[in-house]
Amino acid sequence: MPSPTCSHRPDRAGALALIAFVSCLVAFAGGARAADPAKVLRISLPDITSLDPQQGTDLYSTRVATALFEGLYQYDYLASPAKIVPNAAAAMPEIADGGRTWTIRLKKGLRFADDPVFRGKPRELVAGDYVYALKRWLDPTLKGGGEPALTDLIVGAREVVDAAKAPGARFDYDRPIEGLVAVDEHTLRIRTTAVDYTLLERLASLPSMAVAREAIEGAGADVMTRPVGTGPYVLKEWRKGSRIVLEANPHYRSFAFPTSSDPAHREVVAGMKGVKLPAIGRIEIAIIEEFLPELLSFEKGELDYVGLGGQVLGRVTQDGKLKPELAARGMRHVRAVAPNLIFTYFNMDDPQLGGVSPDRIALRRAIGMGFNTPDFIRVMYHGQALPANQLLPPHVDGHDTSLPAKATYDPAAARALLDRFGYRDRDGDGWREMPDGKPFVLVHSSLPDSWSREADTLWLKSMEAIGIRMRVNTAPFADLLKQSLAGQLPMFNLGYRALDPSGYQILSTLWGRSPPDTNRSRFRLPEYDAAYEAFLRTAPGPERNALAKRMSELVQNYAPMSLQVYGVNNTFLHPWVRGYWPSPFGFAWKYLDVDPAKRAASMK
Q1: Cβ(555)–Cβ(575) below 8 Å
Q2: What's the pTM value of the predicted model, to 2 decimals?
Q3: How do residues 117-172 score in pLDDT, each as one tens digit?
Q4: Do the Cβ atoms of 346 and 389 come closer than 8 Å?
Q5: All domains of the chain, ordered by start, with CATH?
Q6: For the purposes of burial, counting CB atoms within 10 Å of the CB of 539, is it exposed (0-12), middle (13-18) or buried (19 or more)?
Q7: CA-based angle 524:525:531, to the nearest 5?
């Protein structure tokens, strides 16, 4: 599933045999190099929910987890358009049988971070770990597990998944799945029921990242807070609501900063020339939920870089650029349109908002047209957002750049539409009733922070202007996600960060077969479902783009969600940070370096 975020944070997933022990130590030592413990990266995030790669549900958890675990493949940090390259895999997949058989060979000598469950012995990464990880992704009893498209795709998976759905049943991890086989310790073979052009992206995503079965089983109920992976960092501390500390994995292999011939990358590539990565020995993550405290910490040098939004941008920018006095101190401002979609979803099972009858469709469309998106961008994003004119955001295949970049805001048309379908003020109190004359109160769910309160004011004013009475339901983000999962919210603002260039995860959020933690709208439309399933089987190009366009049109016609804005990331960095690039799909920490001496000199 895509990683949901608070709508205002668009930036924001057995022991070795003794006989081989000595030889493995030699193999493991090759390429491993501890990063410099004196180099500490200090950053901030909102609070996270899980560090289990198969049960991560939000963008912030994903950012941390991808530093602890690694997939077979990853996105080239600098490449544009996006390019997938080997990570734990030794090479790109060997594809046969018309695209239905994939053979993937692993790099040798990779190992998991030390953990008591391994009893003091090095634990090598083997193909069976990826088989186990993919089985966990298929497990319908896990949070986010049992993904329908993947279940149907892997030969033999459907029977195992369906068996686990029986009352009182559990997923049988010992039961073989024909299409998911460890041929040997370093060779994985995947057989599929059909060609699926998103499979490679799935193998670069968080839920496919390797875990050791003994570590998962040893963690028990603490599996979301006791991560053991093969990534560049390990978890040292996690104080909920306060801070997270990562330290460099001493067994992780060193690598060089990516190369690029793109002139736009010349400065960052030159600045990282000769640096062995990972260079950062420790990452300290302060849990900060609002932009103003982040900015204050950044200004005091307590944070090395921050992503800011909203009105606080006016404190550090002037006419969209870094203020001269901050630039004189060596600070940098990186502005980049991100593959983020900010929207309001409507619960299609809600008794007042749901359904596909003409009057309900008209109501949802009127709410979308009545919301003052231009003011939303101006006030809440300080002009640093773009009106969303289609389902797929920028940087994603199928995003149609030829469409006019304008908001759907039209309160006059919204009022006329409501009048036409019987949503009228029948008692003269200034508020519209339902077509059957019953009272109508639109319940909007929101967060208890200053940004959301200001956004709520915009919502209330927008709905008042079209005659709709609105009530705001306020609760913490985690609580609202739980209520959303249970189908208890009539409407809710969310942000999705596309984590794949095809956009299949965002499109899956409205696929009728997606579970409620993905399809929060509970949207079910046969025409959309058929287009999505065809999308998965279609090669990148005009035909697939046409399918994406059709799905976007259906969303705008039936209005299971109101598209609002695409995020623009504004990142501010101190001069002692290098290696940062606003990669749409690759996360940055393992590519960064800091200069402690420059930091000390700058803070005098």
Answers
A1: no
A2: 0.90
A3: 999 999 999 999 999 999 999 999 998 889 899 999 999 999 999 999 999 999 99
A4: no
A5: 70-220 (3.90.76.10), 338-421+449-470+493-568 (3.10.105.10)
A6: exposed
A7: 120
